[in-house]
Design goal:
The chain is an alpha/beta fold. It is built from 14 helices and eight strands. 45% of the residues lie in helices and 14% in strands. It has an eight-stranded mixed beta sheet with strand order 3-4-2-5-1-6-7-8, with helices on both faces. The protein binds adenosine-5'-triphosphate and magnesium ion (MG). The site of adenosine-5'-triphosphate (ATP) has 19 residues, from α2, β7 and α12. Magnesium ion (MG) binds next to α2.
Length: 323
Amino acid sequence: MKTVANLSDYKSTTRGTGSPSSIILAVGGGKGGVGKSFLSTNIGIFLANMGFNTIIVDCDLGAPNVHTCLGEAPPKLNFHQFLSGRLENFEAAAVATQFAKLRFIAGGNDHQELANITIHDQSRLMSAIYTLNADFTILDLSAGTHTSTLDFFLMADRHLITLTPDPTSIENAYRFMKAAFFRRIKRFERQLGLEALVASIMAEPEKNEIRVPADLLSRILKENPEAGRELEKFMHHLRFELVINQTRSTKDVQLANSVSTVSKKYFGLPAGVLGHLDYDNAVWHALRKRRPLILEFPNSPLYAQILAIARDLASPHLKKAVI
Ligand SMILES: Nc1ncnc2c1ncn2[C@@H]1O[C@H](COP(=O)(O)OP(=O)(O)OP(=O)(O)O)[C@@H](O)[C@H]1O
Ligand SMILES: [Mg+2]
């Protein structure tokens, strides 16, 4: 399999002609336990139900639990057979689920954190993800802002941020978005010959009037308009899409609008509001029974809320779907 020499170039080098072009959805959010896996797996179930071939990749290598959320036993095949070279074809690790058109690639059980994998393995994984044969590939990410988690987040076509209305979750979501913003700049600065300029601006943020991350982009545009405009284009592909999980009130639901406004002001990047999911005890009841929510509690209000999110994600591609 072709691997990527330079992570900063991986998209252009791997998503070339001939390779399948699955739509990649990354589900991140910074904080642990906010519902990233719940959202990833349920979006997967609904997209598959709409007729899209879907693969969920459990990128939470240290604590993989996509199989549990899907109500499946841990499969024999997983990520690590590919990483260790025992499995040449990454897609061969994709196992079927009880839902037609939905497969998943499990994390392994040997507690190797994504944070600890080598750059070489990371680039092999990214290349392999780009070659998956599916309409949608969903990346369920781990908590935190490790660079490899950010790279998996940034490699996607759509960037979902999951957060709950808790102040700690909001704080971590901003931290994650900020880390993704700077990681994105880092990825392109060398390509655009901006390394020295960015380093000199960031060496003296106050003197250079860098109060919020967006100021860095403005400053670069002022100092080097041509490269700055290129960078701006790359940055605008990064559009956060917010899902507020475990909402209990209208105020909780509206939180997405204020996060979106702050994102625009702080990062100069638009943040869409993809939807919200109410807090529902049915989630943990279903989990305890190791059954997907929609099979165990199809009357949960979450059904319509997840469906709305899945429809939004699917809408640009609905022609492909069977129904
Ligand atoms: N809408 C909801 N209502 C009630 N409980 C929920 C809801 N969403 C998630 N949960 C519960 O929150 C817990 C954490 O969810 P989940 O494992 O999806 O989070 P995570 O962000 O993937 O966590 P980690 O970072 O550890 O992987 C689970 O026990 C799940 O049952
Ligand atoms: Mg998880």
